[in-house]
Amino acid sequence: MSIVRQILEPFGKVTKLSIKDNFCLYEAKYTFLSSAPLDRLKETLEIHLTRLNQSGVSVVITVYDNNPIRISSDNLGSLDEKVGLIVDELVYLEGDVDIEIRIDKEESVNLNIFDLSVFVEHIDSLSLQENLEAWSKFDLSTPFSVDVWEDTEPFTTESICFNSVFPNVNGKSDAITSESCKLDKLGKVEKRDKCGHFANAAQFNFIPNDFKVCCDKNKQLKNFFNGLFNSFLIVYLSDFSSISGDTIKYRLKGYKLLSGSVDFSDLMEHDSSELSRIYEWTYLEGNYTDKIGLARNIISIHLNGECILSIECGTSDSVKSGYDLYLKDNVKQYIEIKNKISDFLQSQSDKALDMTKSMFSMFKTGLWTFTTFFITVFLLRVVNKGTLSGVFGFEVYVVSLLLIVISFIYLLISVMEINSDRNRLIEKYSDIRGRYKDLLDKADLDKIIDVETVSLKERLYINKKRNRYILMWIITNLVILIAVSILYCSSAGSNVERDIETEKVNNLNGLEVFTSKIPQEDEVIVTSQEHDVRVESKLEGQESKPLTEVSSASGLDLKSK
Description:
The chain is α+β, with helices and mostly antiparallel strands. 54% of the residues lie in helices and 16% in strands. The chain folds into 4 domains: 3-107, no CATH class; 116-313, no CATH class; 332-499, no CATH class; 517-554. The protein has 15 helices and 17 strands. The protein has a 5-stranded antiparallel sheet with strand order 1-2-5-3-4. The radius of gyration is 59 Å and the shape is rod-shaped.
C-alpha cells in the first residue's frame, strides 16, 4: 500500500516515467489513458490531500493536456472546479495523458518518504559529507521519526525510526521506540572535544549512537547507517579527524602514531563490533580522560595493518584488562598518597608534642637554675661560717629576686615561641591539603584530612599544655619568692641576736682582765644580773660593789668593755 498509488487509483492503469525522492522533494511522473473512468476522483483526492496537508507537506498534482491543470493541497476549496476541468478535458483527448505528483517536504517537522527504495538510492548517490549535511537539518537529540508513506518493514537506529504511516492488521505501527535516544548526547560531545579535535564539529553535532542500527530488516538502510556509525566511531576514538567528500581522515596517537583515511564505501561494509565495544566502554562511565588515553595506546598496537579498520578481534578485552591494571596501579598510588598524608598527620602530632615538651624543658631549666643557685649559696656559707645562722643575707635576697624576674621574662619568651610554632604547624595542614587537591577528589580529601577539625584539635591540645606549664611556672616562681622572703626575714632576726651575744662576750672578756689585777689574797665573787656586773669579796668585813666602782678604785677603765 502506498499513498501515491491511492491517489493515482482513480486514473486507472498508470505507467511510471520517473520518480525522485530526497530529503526535500518527492516528484513522480506517470501516464494514464485518457479513457480512464476517473471514478471517485474528487473524494479520493480530498481524503489523501487533506491527510498530507496535515502532515506538513505541500502536494501539487498536475495533469498535462492542452492547458495544464494543477490541484494543490493548499487550495482544496477549488477541488471541485479542478476535477471538473480534468473530466471535461479528457473527453477531447486520446491516448496517454501525463500526470505529475510533486510533494514539497521543506515545511514538515518529520522526514517524509514516499518511495523508500528510491530514497535509499538517493542517499547512496550522495557522498558522506553530503549525507551528514542533509541529516544535520533534523534534531536527533530526541527520537526522530521518519514517516514512510508506503508499506515497509520497520527500521530503527538509536535515534532514528523509519515507520510506515499505515497501521498493520492490529492497528499498530511496527516502529520500535528507541530508549537510547535519551542518552546524554551533549556529555559525549563534550568528552570528545576534551581529548580530541573534530574539524567538522560545527557542522555535524552527531554521536555514533545516532546511527547505530537496532532493527535491520532493510539491508540497504543497514549498510548506509552502518557506514555513518563507523565514521563517527573513528571520530570519537581519534585525536584528530575530518570529513571531506566521501573520505574521513584521522590521526590517533598511542604507543604508535596511527594516521590515515578511509572511504565511506569501506565503512559501509565493515564489522564495527570491536570499535563499538571500545567506544561504549570509553564513553559510558568512569574517568574518560584515562580511558580514552589507554584505549588509543592499546588500539595502536593491536592492528593487523596500518588502518584503524584492521583492528584485531579481542582488542576491546585487551583495553579493559589494561585499564584494570591501570586502576590497580592507581589504587597503589592512592594508598601511597593516603599513607603519606597519614604520616604527615602523625609527624605534625609529634611536633605538637615536642613543642609542649620544649616548654617543659625550659621550665625545668629555670627550676634547676634556682636550685643550683640556692645550693651553692648555702654550701659556701655553711663551709665558711660553720653554721646555718645568717646564711641568707641581703645580697642573696636581691640576686634571688633578679632571678625570679628573669624567669618571668623567660616564661614570656617561651609563650611567644610556642604560639608562633603552633600557628606555623597549623598552617601546614592547609598547605598539605592544597598540594594534593589536584590528585584526590575534594570529598575524599576532606575525609582523609579534615583541616578544620585537625587544626582545632591540635590548637586545643597545644593551648591546654601551654596553659598548664604557664600555671606551674608562675606558681613555682611565687613559691620561690615567698620562700626567699621568709628566709631573708629569718636571717635578719638571727643577725640581731648574734650582735647582742657578741657584746656580752666582749664584756666578759674585759672582766677577766680586771680580776687578774686584784690581789690574790682577796677572794672575790663576780656576779652578773642583766647588764650589771658586781664584785663581791669573801673576806670578812668587805661588802660587794658594782664592777664600775671596783674598776675605778683599781685604776681600770671598763667603759669600753
